[in-house]
Design brief:
By secondary structure, this protein is of the alpha/beta class. It is built from 17 helices and 46 strands. Among the domains are: 284-470, Alpha-Beta Horseshoe (Leucine-rich repeat, LRR (right-handed beta-alpha superhelix)); 649-817, Toll/interleukin-1 receptor homology (TIR) domain (Rossmann fold, 3-Layer(aba) Sandwich). Helix 9 (649-663) packs parallel to helix 12 (716-725). The relative contact order is 0.03. The structure holds 2-acetamido-2-deoxy-beta-D-glucopyranose (8 copies).
Length: 818
Amino acid sequence: MNFFTVSLIVYFSVGAGKSCTETTENQHYTCTGRNLSYIPSSIPSSIQTLDFSFNVLKRLRKTVFPVLSFLRVLDLSRCQIKHIENDAFHNVRNLTTLILTGNPITYFGPGGLNSLHNLQRLVLVDVGISSLQLQINNLTKLQELRVGTNNIQSMSLPPFMSSFKDFSLLDLHANNISVIKTDHTVLLREIGRNMTLILSRNPLSYIEPGAFKNIHLCELDIRSVFPSFAAQEIGLKALYGLNVKRLKFGKYNGGFRFHFSDTDYLYGLCSIYFQEVYYYIMERPNQPISFLHCMINATTVAVIGGVINKMEYVPFREIKELHLISVKLSTLPGKQLSHLRALEKVVITHNSAPIWADAFIDMPNLQYLDLSSNQITLYKCCTTLFSGTPQIRYLNLSQNIDIGFDLGGFDALASLEILDLHRTNVERVGYLPVLSSLKYLRYLDVSYSSITFINIFSFYRLKNLNVLKIAGNKFQGDVARYLFNNLTLLEHLDMSYCHMVELHPSSFKNLQRLRLLNLRGNHLMTVDFLAYPSLKQLTSVYVNKNSITTIPLHVLQKLPANLSEFDLSSNPIYCSCSQTDFTLWIIQNQNILKQPENIFCKTFSQSLDFRATDFDIDSCVHMKRLAIVLSVFFITVVVLLSFLVYRFQFYLQYCCILLRGYRSPGQQECSYDAFVIFSSYDEVWVMNELMENLENGVPPIQLCLHMRDFQAGKSIASNIIDEGIMGSRKIIVVVSQHFIDSAWCRFEFELAQSRFMMERNANIIIIILEDVEERKTKKVLGLHKHLKKNTYLKWSRDPLSNMRFWIRLRKAIIATNQ
Ligand SMILES: *[C@@H]1O[C@H](CO)[C@@H](O)[C@H](O)[C@H]1NC(C)=O
Ligand SMILES: *[C@@H]1O[C@H](CO)[C@@H](O)[C@H](O)[C@H]1NC(C)=O
Ligand SMILES: *[C@@H]1O[C@H](CO)[C@@H](O)[C@H](O)[C@H]1NC(C)=O
Ligand SMILES: *[C@@H]1O[C@H](CO)[C@@H](O)[C@H](O)[C@H]1NC(C)=O
Ligand SMILES: *[C@@H]1O[C@H](CO)[C@@H](O)[C@H](O)[C@H]1NC(C)=O
Ligand SMILES: *[C@@H]1O[C@H](CO)[C@@H](O)[C@H](O)[C@H]1NC(C)=O
Ligand SMILES: *[C@@H]1O[C@H](CO)[C@@H](O)[C@H](O)[C@H]1NC(C)=O
Ligand SMILES: *[C@@H]1O[C@H](CO)[C@@H](O)[C@H](O)[C@H]1NC(C)=O
């Protein structure tokens, strides 16, 4: 099973589960394409319209429809209906429109359609019928019968239809009618009403001459019916005596092309009475042809397609409307149309060959002139092109090549209300106030016209302008700030794709009626101008595809009150927890935002961009909390660190000095032989015994004693480090009970140990002044180790050991380091 089948089955099985959709409250229901084989009972009996197309009904029985007495329109297109029983429509018999398009109906019960007494429109397109002899004799209110794309071979209607008073449209397009004889049109003649008859795309090879004589029709469409050029010439002649308001003909069944031999090939038209004629031409004549002269009495002439090149001159009597569309004219036929004083509307468009323009002169009733899509190049418009055409209200010169305008160029077109020049290069419009004589102008389109607006008076005096489209042009400097100042009636302004980088907030200050503002596809970063108080009436604003990252809260608060369509999509929106106002506004105002699903928050990579409406504002609260927690933590750490630094400043300082010292150990000069670490309680012993014995002995030993040798004004720590520990070769530690209890002593001892940690020599000399419990020595870092190794001197009052003590001590101090 391939993917397509799978997806189809999924689609249908999902679809079948759904009930029908209500489109207007209790009136219109659509169940289209749901593979339903029954009418869901959930449908209320009051509905008026039911679209049940593309389902599976197969056989229409009375039981198919519930009683729906208000149902007027029923669409059963392509429901695979084959069989329609007699009483099939009994429950929906008030229908006015029944559409059965595309059902392969093989059986119509005689009473099936006939029960629909109120039916006005019956559509039996592509149902496989081969005759118009339908059992519809009771449908006396029938107005339209559409039976295109069947196998019908004769256009004769059943006789009972002569009593159908409102019958006005018979659509027989794309059947198999090849012959029309006088007795086929009897009923048309009898009805004698303004009927529309569509016979296009039938293979009509023969019309009996006079078959349409004295028949009145509203419209006859015989496009693509004649199998050949010759058949058309004969066929048109055979239509003599027909009186039709609108005749549409031309083109050939199968696209037959040929060369002209007979310049009078449309002669048959001269004996048909018509007012409007639409000629769909395919020919490419090899010589100038005359195809308009039988149209001389028409009020509307339209020629579409083919190659005409040059229009012939025809003294039309009453022509009001002329359309020449895609006929490859090489010249605008101003000369041929001039002095046709009844002409009101001229449409000459889509002539792809480059064409020149003849002047339009003396056409006092001309109101509507569409010359769009013609490749026209004109250096000076419009004084020479128009004269005596004071009524022109509509002029369309769009999609041409290049048109230049002069000051005063529009003086002959002072009534102009609608002027369209889009996608034609126009010269001097942004440069001189060439439009200033158009005081009635309501609609101006100069989009994509290669204009650079230089002059703030470009729209000078266009007081009545309602709609202004200047998309795809450029502005010099801040011209846009003043350009619109006097357009007080403007309601619709299109400035999309104008390369605008910024707009001054007062640019629209006088546009109090502005309702639609289109700034799509510029490079705007701000929309502050929307907060301008004069823009109260704005309902639609398009600023999609710009460079807007955010809109500040004060602008959002002053947006026009009735704004109902605001397109912000495709901008690089910056969503962050530091500015949630805008994102929150987007989430809350999706009802006025156009395509809110296309408003994306910009990230570093396009693939990571996400919808602004998915932005999780709650997470910002968490983020904020996290930020607070982190900062509290940080502050705590800083405080703690400062405290530690303060507390251990000596160690730190010492470390610095150590690092300094280790870097240059040789340069360290020692001013003392030994630094003595002791508790102040033991000062008496130190002064009386230690100092006496060492400093006054031979050789004298210079001791560093804190109370005597430390420099005043220096911190104790610095003194300990600089003078004591670093400034002495050896350290003498006087261990006593007090020493162990003193924090300062412990500190000094630890510092001392760390200095000599690198140098393994016995530079620390321990003196045990009094016995200390072993347990207590463990309190002092490293002391226990020294004591265990027995590398200490013990003080004793006994004179003999006393003597030995001093000798050993002296030796220990004097011993030099290796
Ligand atoms: C349509 O519905 C019928 C039953 O009503 C079912 O047999 C058939 O498979 C369905 N078709 C699809 C394409 O789902
Ligand atoms: C058609 O009209 C005739 C006469 O008015 C009537 O007898 C007959 O019942 C109608 N047929 C249907 C199907 O309504
Ligand atoms: C059209 O009608 C002709 C007879 O007039 C017949 O031979 C031909 O098969 C029909 N064409 C179609 C497509 O039914
Ligand atoms: C055709 O319709 C027009 C108005 O649409 C009407 O004036 C004219 O009388 C009608 N002609 C016939 C023959 O019914
Ligand atoms: C046009 O109308 C005039 C006068 O009504 C008539 O003499 C002439 O034959 C008509 N010409 C055509 C081509 O219908
Ligand atoms: C002018 O002609 C162009 C091309 O035919 C068309 O798209 C446009 O809508 C016309 N302008 C007006 C104002 O009707
Ligand atoms: C606007 O109108 C005033 C008074 O009519 C005029 O003086 C001024 O020049 C006009 N400004 C522009 C930019 O058209
Ligand atoms: C907004 O619309 C309402 C109803 O459409 C209208 O009454 C009101 O005047 C409008 N407000 C503004 C400022 O145009």
